[in-house]
Task: inverse folding
């Protein structure tokens, strides 16, 4: 048996909700779309200098000499599927692997699979080891999602998420609107602390890590549970957690977000990991200042 050791980036791609796809579209149509998707994965992998190690019924495992190649491939794949009916999730890690009989094995493969499991529809996740090798331009597009304990790993693993172009784009404000927009802010109040997020402010991280701007340490909060940041459509709340985030607007409309985002309209409350009715003393209050009140908040996949 031929066995050799290599240092590579291992990338996993998985089609989301494939069982539902077959149920809703029928076997023939669902199978055709799945094969087209896997063909796109193969084409993007080979175009960027990678190798498809194997495919499953609804996913693929690929390897690359460098993390930058894996990053480009992941971005190409998500871009190619943006307007289609399928969504995939992607996760990758870099490190030494054992290559044997056309397959790869080892801790790097196992950790890449764990990262994939944390990913959601349309997302690209990677470890800190990957981020450290990216170019400055690529590194500017990733944000810390969580630091989590992974079975078999002696230390916690930092997982990062790629922020898409739509989330990171800059809008030029006409001069007639600049003054009104410059006064816009989101005011957050929790446990006697008030934070005022302006349109030029840095994202507010919420969670049980002591370094979070809003430290929320209940039994269901994650270290880096959610973020509130400025996006083109306003102030957006994005959940990064396992237990999710609850959002209630001023009209009493409740949303449950898990790995999703919503625009914070007018005013309301946020509950971290716990249904609001069970958490009356642990609610984060928010209110918009200095801009017109919008209608119901937009909601989208993370």
Result:
């Amino acid at each position: 048996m031929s066995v050799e050791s290599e240092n590579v980036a291992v990338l996993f791609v998985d089609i989301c909700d494939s069982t539902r796809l077959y149920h809703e579209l029928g076997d023939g149509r669902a199978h055709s779309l799945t094969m087209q998707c896997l063909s796109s994965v193969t084409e993007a992998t080979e175009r960027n200098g990678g190798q498809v190690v194997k495919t499953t019924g609804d996913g693929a495992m690929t390897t690359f000499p460098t993390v930058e190649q894996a990053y480009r491939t992941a971005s190409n794949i998500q871009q190619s599927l943006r307007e289609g009916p399928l969504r995939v999730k992607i996760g990758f890690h870099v490190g030494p692997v054992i290559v044997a009989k056309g397959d790869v094995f080892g801790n790097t493969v196992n950790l890449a699979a764990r990262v994939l499991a944390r990913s959601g529809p349309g997302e690209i996740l990677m470890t800190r080891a990957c981020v450290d090798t990216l170019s400055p331009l690529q590194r500017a597009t990733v944000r810390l999602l969580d630091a989590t304990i992974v079975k078999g790993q002696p230390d916690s693993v930092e997982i990062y998420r790629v922020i898409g172009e739509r989330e990171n784009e800059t809008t030029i404000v006409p001069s007639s609107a600049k003054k009104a927009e410059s006064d816009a802010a989101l005011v957050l109040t929790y446990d006697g602390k008030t934070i005022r997020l302006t349109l030029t402010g840095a994202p507010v991280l919420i969670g049980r890590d002591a370094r979070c701007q809003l430290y929320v340490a209940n039994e269901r909060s994650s270290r880096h549970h959610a973020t509130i940041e400025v996006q083109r459509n306003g102030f957006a709340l994005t959940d990064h957690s396992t237990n999710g985030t609850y959002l209630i607007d001023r009209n009493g409309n409740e949303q449950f977000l898990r790995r999703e985002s919503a625009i914070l309209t007018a005013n309301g409350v946020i509950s971290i990991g716990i249904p609001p009715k069970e958490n009356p003393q642990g609610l984060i209050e928010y209110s918009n200042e200095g801009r017109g009140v919008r209608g119901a908040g937009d909601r989208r996949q993370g």
Summary: The chain has a mean pLDDT of 85. The chain has two domains: 3-167, 172-301. Residues 27-47 form the longest helix (21 residues).
